[in-house]
Amino acid sequence: MGHLLRYFIIIVGFFTAISMLGFDLTKITIVLGALGVGIGFGLQGIVNNFVCGLVLLFERPLREGDTIDVNNGGSVGVIKKIGLRSTILETFDNADVIIPNADLISNQVTNWTLQNRQARLSVPVGVAYGSDVSLVSSILIDSAKNHPKILKSPAPYTLFMALGDSALNFELRAWLPDADDRLSVRSELYYEIVQKFAEANIEIPFPQRDLHIRSIETDILTNMSRKNDKSEQEVKDDIVTTSAG
Known about the structure:
The protein has eight helices and eight strands; from the N terminus they run αααββββαββαββααα. By secondary structure, it is α+β, with helices and mostly antiparallel strands.
């Protein structure tokens, strides 16, 4: 609202000064109208951003200091300034991104701090088949409860998400008082979880595939069994002969 008041005072002051200097405001209005028609087509983008800036300032879906995500990860950071034409977003890499206000109105924007700064943290974890699922869940919850930045209420909890191709997939969910701490807390939890899994002999698997051969030709089996008795050159000769045949 402070921005609007400043612009309003400037505009009123401009026309008041012109009137005091003796200019006819009616003629000036006609001239401005003619100029507006001429340059309006070339300033559609600017006018669009200006109108969207007014919408942002009046409706206030975004405020200076809010943490936002534009286009699902396209630009993530904290709003430094909302102007009539554009908004300045400071990313977590300390870079300033200038976003036209029209983009903030027409695109999807996630405001992590519109109502309050609390945010839910999700930590996906996979363990090897054969692991004690109750112990896994207990370790995940204890790791969250012992972290000083995780809220006690709502209490942390785990979900058994899926039987994956190579792992049993769990997800730890907890609430933070400040959305800006999500990355650092997730990293610290992973350190804690990996250490506790190692102490409990719980394996974190890597993607793997088992190959089962149901049938194989007798000639191939014979050649494979004879490879150990042949020199490298003889094996190469057999491969060339087989390919030629």
